[in-house]
Write a structure and sequence with these properties.
alpha/beta; Rossmann fold; Serine Threonine Protein Phosphatase 5, Tetratricopeptide repeat; three-stranded mixed beta sheet; about 40% helix; disordered C terminus; DNA-binding
Length: about 675
DNA sequence: CGGAGAGTTGAAACC
DNA sequence: CGGTTTCAACTCTCC
């Protein structure tokens, strides 16, 4: 009783002393940073400061989902930590007593305890329309409200609020850039940037009178990037020095990053300024005219990773470019327009975000996705037919295809243009947009005929700019399953590269074993006579297993005849387009699609003999209450009982639309 | 100078 | 924001 009175009195005193001009209670605000790691043009951060808080806690919830269960290579980890460090320094610059407080516990379990411990009045964060983000945030919001904490969210992640776009598009996913533009017109003008804060309230007390929930570290999908123990949770909520510092790669047990791309608002803003100062380049930018083979420097802005983590505001970028366009129009200088211009690129991003916002979890998969064409790809995702969600595993319907997939992912296909791109991706975490086209087409409709979902997973792991909506959307585009349909426009692994880089400098840089090969053979080294191979110090042989033989570097032979494979793919695509099934067609949902595609005539599909095309648990397996160990239906044959190197057994794939935080498991898909 | 033949270019059709 | 083939139209060269 005594204590309570004291608390009341001190609360009164605080109110009195904190705010002499008004009689309101002290505002104790948490600003929860997520994919908005910046201070400039942040509507949500502005909303937090507009509350005129007495204390402001800028926090980051350290998420097990991101640490263990999303595919995040060490390059993206480095980039994320860079951005966090950068924001923390910016906060300290505004107020020497403030910084980004990293709390080593996922938001869902942490926030309810934290709101209480720090007597929080308001929780403020940027709205997220990723499916995972929605699930997580709705739980956070409902818990906060129950605890009497006011929740404030603002939207600043895309040009328009994705939910508004969906509404303006009749509740349907935006499947073309025209739809997106019309929806955008209905929603209204793209909000102008808000001011960057110049002051920042102090932190309040940092007492942590509650226990830490240490999340389950298994399965650890990023184990292959670790050379030490993952220890980011074991030091407690405030970290090893009890100072809420941003963790290091070392603490995560991760190997050092190989990329030279570093994160942070304070890196991208000056660089953006520099690029924008070239008004001819900015004003006439046309994406298709920029070279995928250019490196050091690349031919485009390289803003995507910064946009993803919010280190650069897309609206700020949009309006800055708009000013330049306006100026040029007045001066009657040439300007480029959507879809090829810079504005066009940002519109595509909004299109993918809004499509995802409309479709939810199903956007990230073929099964039960109403907006996607069904194509009987090899290596399809396994599906839990009860939840209608993919499990994170995939069906190996053909061992040769699995081998091709691994060779593609590791840059050992024997097609130097493809391999150079995949090696650049692995090393730098970034490749040019058209390079993504080339390797994505190659893996799916224009080469291997392997599911786009396999490719999307590899990109998710390796790209520093991985953004679920854009990655998924672009893979659907390139595989001609959604957004785009001209499947006969097929990229050649030889001709397309040559068009941009006849000398093969890009290949020489990323596939160094070929660097001394004559220009004549650089795109097709297997055609080089043995004498030329010898002179160049490389032997073109094998299937990628060997990297060296008798002291001589080895580069593999092409893993198939491209033209033959291209014809097979075209036939398969033509058939699939005639059949006209979609991800949510009854025949896809129940697995009877297999009777529609013949073993031979349907191109590459294995038909009845192959995997069920992503229907794990379909049919008999359920009735026969299949033993836990192998939940694979009997009708699937070869390879399916073996765990695949890239998949995790028995666990849902939770990552593909994940944001950076949370401990959620997927919920049942909406029907 | 005309015309044959080789070489080049670009649009169109097809995959 | 595809590649390849084809074919007409054109240029160039040579006698």
């Amino acid at each position: 009783m005594q204590r309570k009175r004291l608390a009341l009195y001190s609360r009164f005193l605080m109110a009195y002393t904190c705010c002499l001009t008004c009689s309101r209670a002290p505002e104790r605000v948490i600003y929860w940073f997520r994919t908005d790691l910046r201070l400039h043009d942040s509507p949500a951060l502005k909303a937090a400061l507009d509350l005129k808080p007495d204390v402001l806690y800028p926090i980051w919830c350290w998420d097990s989902h991101y640490v263990y269960r999303a595919r995040v290579g060490n390059n993206r980890w480095q980039f994320l930590l860079d951005c966090m460090d950068d924001v923390s320094k910016s906060l300290t610059n505004l107020n020497g007593k403030s910084k980004l407080l990293v709390l080593r516990e996922p938001a869902v379990t942490l926030l309810p305890k934290l709101l209480k411990a720090w007597k929080i009045t308001h929780l403020v964060f940027e709205k997220d329309t990723d499916s995972y983000g929605r699930d997580r945030d709705s739980e956070i919001i409902s818990n906060a409200k129950k605890a009497g904490v006011e929740v404030v969210t603002k939207y600043g992640r895309t040009l328009w609020d994705s939910d508004d776009l969906v509404k303006a598009n009749g509740g349907k996913p935006t499947m073309s850039i025209t739809q997106l533009q019309h929806a955008g017109e209905k929603v209204g003008a793209i909000p102008l940037p808000v001011a960057t804060p110049v002051t920042l309230p102090d932190l309040g007390g940092l007492q942590l009178d509650f226990a830490q929930n240490q999340p389950d570290g298994t399965p650890d999908m990023n184990a292959k990037y670790r050379d030490g123990e993952e220890a980011s949770y074991s030091a407690g909520i405030a970290g090893p020095n009890n100072d809420f510092a941003v963790p290091t790669l070392k603490e995560l047990g991760l190997k050092p990053a190989t990329t030279h791309i570093r994160g942070g608002e304070n890196i991208i803003l000056p660089r953006l300024e520099q690029i924008l100062s070239d008004e001819d380049y900015t004003g006439t930018f046309e994406k298709p005219k920029t070279s995928p083979a250019a490196f050091e420097p690349q031919s485009t802005f390289l803003t995507s990773p910064y946009l993803h983590l919010g280190a650069l505001s897309c609206r700020y970028f949009y309006h800055r470019v708009g000013e330049i366009l306006e100026k040029r129009r007045k001066a009657k200088q040439p300007v480029s327009g959507p879809p090829v211009s810079l504005h066009g690129q940002l519109l595509f991003r909004d299109m993918y975000f809004a499509a995802q916002a409309a479709l939810g979890w199903s956007f990230g998969q073929t099964y039960n996705n109403s907006a996607i064409r069904f194509i009987p790809w090899h290596l399809p995702s396994k599906v839990d037919v009860n939840t209608k969600l993919i499990t994170g595993e995939y069906e190996i319907d053909d061992e040769r295809k699995e081998k091709e997939f691994q060779r593609w992912a590791s840059g050992k296909t024997g097609f130097p243009w493809i391999d150079a791109i995949m090696r650049q991706l692995r090393h730098e975490g970034w490749i040019h947009h058209l390079a993504r086209h080339a390797v994505a087409c190659f893996l799916t409709r224009g080469g291997c005929y392997i599911s786009w979902e396999r490719g999307a997973e590899v990109f998710e792991e390796l790209l520093v700019d991985h953004e679920a909506a854009c990655n998924i959307g672009n893979w659907q585009w390139l595989s001609c399953t959604a957004f785009y349909s001209q499947f006969y426009r097929c990229y050649s692994p030889v001709a397309f590269g040559k068009k941009w880089d006849d000398n093969g400098d890009f290949i020489r840089r990323y596939v160094p074993e070929l660097k001394d090969l004559p220009k004549k053979y650089i795109y097709e080294p297997h055609k080089a006579p043995l004498q030329d191979q010898k002179r160049a110090g490389v032997s073109i042989t094998g299937d990628g297993e060997e990297t060296e033989m008798d002291g001589v570097a080895v580069y593999p032979k092409p893993m198939f005849d491209f033209n033959t494979q291209r014809d097979i793919c075209l036939q398969g695509m033509k058939k699939a387009y005639q059949v006209k099934l979609h991800g949510n067609s009854p025949q896809v949902l129940d697995g009877t699609w297999k009777s529609i595609f013949e073993d031979t005539g349907a191109g590459p599909t294995e038909g009845e003999k192959g995997g069920p095309g992503g229907t794990l648990g379909f049919g008999k397996a359920e009735e026969e209450d299949a033993d836990e160990g192998s939940a694979t239906p009997k009708k699937t044959t070869q390879g399916t009982s073996q765990p695949t190197p890239r998949s995790t057994r028995g666990h849902k794939r939770e990552h593909s639309q994940g944001t950076l935080d949370g401990v959620f498991t997927k919920k049942r898909a909406k029907d």
